[in-house]
Each structure stands twice: as structure tokens, then as C-alpha cells.
Specification:
Layout lengths: L3 H17 L2 E7 L5 H9 L6 E7 L5 H9 L5 E5 L4 H11 L4 E5 L3 E2 L4 H11 L3 E5 L2 E3 L4 H17 L11 E5 L14 H6 L7 E4 L5 E3 L7 H22 L16
Parallel strand pairs: 1-2, 1-4, 2-3, 6-9, 7-10
Antiparallel strand pairs: 4-8, 5-10, 6-8
Helix pairs in contact: 2-3
């Protein structure tokens, strides 16, 4: 009995570790031609211990065409749902079978060591519940360079005052968070979601993991003006979060799922 007991403990620890070392990539998608590029970056990951969940609300079958090319090398599940991006993320979180959930937009490119590095972060930090990443533009011009640099500064600084700003361009959470929180279908929902995340555990800004996004909002004059109007609600939410007034914008979210 004394010999069997430690073996059972070792086996239990190994099982817990194997469960931990899995990721669900959740992708809200609607008519985005860059989805194939994201799937290509997932296929090049040094660690393939993950699943991919695409919540699709496209008007055509473009998503199916992209997925069919990668289905042999990636474990992909497609859910068709006409809904907002916040609801799409909630659906993906409910269907995910892993402990680490990564929400990523379809126009993102991930570095090849993304999954491997993220697993190491969650494994080393048992109290870690959320991870944000520095976002860089895939194409650089004066406007995109300045804007993305400002956002990286804002994101990094937000962790210092205990209100981490974690944009769902790419964001990682423990699945346990979704027992009591969910995303809303409004502009700035990712900022509001992450505002109180530290009451569940630790949140870190992964400066060493660079994530790249297509800067489509900052290429042309008309797009730039439209994007500025888009970010006004998000920056307003940031301002309210600093003073703890953001709770006036969101309903009570302490809802336990069965």
C-alpha cells in the first residue's frame, strides 16, 4: 500500500497537467477573407495540443471552403449562428473542452510559438486567469505605427492600476471565468469584460508574445474616421473603468452555469 499510494499521486498530477496543456482557439467569423491566413498560422504552431472552434455568421460558405483545406491537420469545429461577436465568444466558451480559452479575431496572425508559450505561462502560474498580448500591425505606415504603439502602452499600463485592458483581438482566459461572466454584444465589450477580471485571479501582459493584426481600419482616410468613431465608446469605457463607474453600463453577471 505504501508503494502504490505515491504512484497514484504521480498519476493524478500527470492527468491534471495533461488537461491543463490544452487550448481552445475561439474565432468569431463573418465573411472575412483573412481567416485562411489565421488557420495557416495555427497550423504552424510548435505545439498542436489545441482545438479550434469557429462561430460563423457569414452570408456564404466561404468559411467551409477555408476549413476544408486545414481540417486534415487541425481539429476544427464550426458552429453556425447569426449573432453578435460577444455572443459568438460565449457560444465558443460553452462548447470548449479545455481549460485555456483563446479568443482571436480572424484577421490575426499568431507567432509559431504562441500555443507553447501560453501553456508555459498558465502552467507556471496556478492563479493566472487571464493573459493579454501586445498587438502589432501586419502592415506599417505612420498612422498604424503610432496608433498601435499607443494601444500597447495603454494595455501595458492598465495592468499597473489593477484594471487590465485585454482586447479580444487576442485574449486568453481560464474556462472557469465563464462560470460567472460573459461577453456583451456592444462596442468595447472586451474592455468591460476584463475590467474586474483580477477578482478571480491574476492577469498578466505577455510582452514576449507578439500578435499581429491586419490594420484595415487605418489604411484610408474614410476608414480612419470611421475607426475613430468606433473607438470612442471603447475609450469612454476605459475612462469609466479607471474611476470604477463601468458597472453602470453592464448588468449583473454573477450567473452560475450548470
Amino acid at each position: 500500500k505504501t508503494r502504490r499510494h505515491p504512484r497514484r499521486k504521480v498519476k493524478q498530477r500527470y492527468m491534471e497537467k495533461s488537461i491543463m496543456q490544452k487550448i481552445s482557439f475561439i474565432i468569431p467569423h463573418k465573411d472575412d477573407p483573412l481567416l485562411d491566413r489565421l488557420l495557416n498560422s495555427l497550423n504552424k504552431q510548435t505545439c498542436k495540443d489545441f482545438e479550434v472552434i469557429i462561430v460563423d455568421s457569414s452570408d456564404d460558405n466561404s468559411c467551409l471552403k477555408s476549413v476544408s483545406e486545414w481540417n486534415k491537420s487541425l481539429k476544427i469545429e464550426i458552429i453556425f449562428a447569426e449573432c453578435g461577436r460577444g455572443t459568438a465568444r460565449n457560444i465558443g466558451a460553452k462548447l470548449a473542452k479545455t481549460d485555456i480559452l483563446v479568443f482571436v479575431d480572424a484577421d490575426v496572425v499568431l507567432p509559431t510559438n504562441f500555443a507553447e508559450s501560453l501553456i508555459k505561462m498558465f502552467t507556471k502560474n496556478s492563479g493566472l486567469v487571464a493573459v493579454g498580448f501586445p498587438i502589432y500591425p501586419t502592415k506599417i505606415n505612420k498612422i498604424s505605427r503610432t496608433f498601435y504603439r499607443f494601444l500597447r502602452f495603454l494595455d501595458g499600463f492598465s495592468y499597473r492600476y489593477g484594471r487590465p485592458r485585454i482586447p479580444t483581438t487576442c485574449a486568453a482566459y481560464r474556462s472557469s471565468v465563464f462560470q460567472s461572466r460573459f461577453f456583451l454584444d456592444l462596442i468595447g465589450e472586451d474592455v468591460l469584460f476584463s475590467a474586474d477580471i483580477m477578482k478571480y485571479g491574476k492577469a498578466l501582459f505577455a510582452k514576449h508574445i507578439k500578435v499581429f493584426e491586419e490594420p484595415r481600419r487605418w489604411n484610408e482616410g474614410s476608414q480612419i474616421l470611421k475607426s475613430l468613431w468606433h473607438y470612442i465608446p471603447a475609450f469612454t469605457a476605459n475612462f469609466l473603468i479607471i474611476f470604477g463607474l463601468h458597472k453602470l453600463m453592464i448588468p449583473t453577471q454573477e450567473i452560475k452555469r450548470k
